[in-house]
């Protein structure tokens, strides 16, 4: 039977019960480790990475033991006064490679490593298309895709490409009401204010019967309730120590209780920037020091219950990913 939602969404409690069995990929280590890869001009790569560079970084990450690589979803960056984002940009801004096309290319050229979006903006694509692309890339990868989603935040790219910036959380909630059932059951019938999916189905199905895991990155009260209803994992970035996320973790537990979900069924992930040798200053407020000091900070996140840590290396190149292998060893042994 199709999973049907009305425009106001299903009952929180009944929906939460459908996601108690988490689909997050199992790691052989106490805390999984990922690397977010540079995708933009003037990025932490030290210039513009092309696909050959991104693939080389991914293969290196796979070789040294990372569980996942993470791909950003932006069209451009333009620094504005007072903005949270301060990447050096040219007068017209920095361009960015497209997320899902890059993920598909990496999926076809690697064997073990998970490939995730951190995070794909639901305001940029029809949600049915997002589910279809995810299912297809998951099939290409043999079941290694993680669909990271968010409501978006960088207004200049919305304005430049003609996407509406209003009601972002409401649009996100409707998108989730379509994407989630299409991945989990392969069917949905939904009529909302912003999105519709009329007796839609997602076939053929990929290698996982209930689709790829869904991660959502956000921290607002309403978004946390949406995460508790739909997501397999929650993400927060970028933090220099684990104490910075204590209140967010408490709020996440409260959101789970509000919708009738066991908080233990929601995977918690976090990320921090890492100053590697030759630090470019692209990634702000990095964790710095010798490998032992960096590993100690990352272990602090594990002690807080973080189950996957995303490292934002600066610079991020095949060479610095190889250098980070020592940190991986220390975290695994900690």
Précis, in short:
The chain has 334 residues and is α/β, with parallel strands linked by helices.
Report on this structure:
The protein has 334 residues and is an alpha/beta fold. It has 11 helices and 14 strands. Strand 12, helix 8 (246-258) and strand 13 (267-275) form a beta-alpha-beta unit. Helix 4 (127-141) packs across helix 6 (168-184) and helix 9 (291-303) packs across helix 11.
SSE string: EHEHEEEHEEHEHHEEEHEHEHEHH
- What is the subunit organization of this protein? single chain
- Strands of the widest sheet, in order across it, are 2-3-6-8-11-12-13-14
Largest sheet: 8 strands, parallel, barrel
Roughly what is the average pLDDT, rounded to an integer? 92
Number of strands: 14
**Straight-line distance between termini:** 48 Å
Strand content: 15-25%
Q: What's the structural domain tally? A: 1
């Amino acid at each position: 039977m199709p999973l049907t939602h009305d425009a106001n969404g299903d009952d929180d409690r009944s929906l939460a019960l459908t996601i108690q069995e988490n689909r997050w990929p199992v790691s052989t280590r106490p805390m999984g480790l990922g690397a977010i890869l540079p995708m933009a001009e003037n990025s932490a790569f030290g210039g513009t990475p092309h696909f050959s560079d991104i693939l080389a970084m991914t293969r290196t990450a796979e070789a040294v033991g990372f569980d996942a690589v993470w791909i950003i979803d932006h069209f451009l960056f333009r620094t504005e006064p007072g903005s949270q984002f301060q990447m050096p940009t040219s007068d017209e801004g920095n361009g960015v490679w497209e997320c899902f096309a890059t993920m598909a290319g990496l999926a076809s050229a690697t064997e073990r490593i998970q490939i995730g979006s951190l995070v794909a903006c639901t305001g940029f694509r029809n949600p049915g298309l997002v589910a279809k692309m995810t299912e297809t890339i998951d099939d290409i990868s043999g079941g290694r895709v993680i669909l990271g989603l968010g409501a978006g935040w960088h207004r200049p790219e919305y304005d430049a490409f003609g996407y509406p910036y209003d009601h972002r959380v409401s649009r996100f909630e409707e998108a989730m009401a379509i994407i989630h059932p299409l991945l989990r059951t392969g069917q949905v019938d939904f009529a909302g204010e912003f999105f519709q999916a009329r007796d839609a189905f997602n076939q053929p199905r990929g290698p996982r019967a209930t689709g790829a895991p869904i991660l959502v990155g956000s921290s607002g009260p309403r978004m946390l309730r949406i995460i508790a209803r739909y997501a397999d994992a929650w993400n927060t970035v970028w933090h220099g120590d684990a104490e910075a996320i204590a209140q967010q973790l408490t709020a996440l537990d409260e959101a789970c209780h509000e919708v009738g979900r066991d908080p233990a069924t929601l995977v918690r992930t976090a990320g921090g920037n890492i100053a590697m040798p030759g630090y470019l200053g692209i990634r702000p407020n990095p964790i710095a020091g010798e490998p032992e000091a960096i590993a100690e900070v990352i272990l602090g996140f594990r002690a807080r219950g973080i189950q996957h840590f995303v490292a934002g290396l600066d610079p991020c190149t095949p060479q610095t990913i190889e250098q980070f292998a020592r940190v991986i060893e220390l975290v695994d042994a900690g």
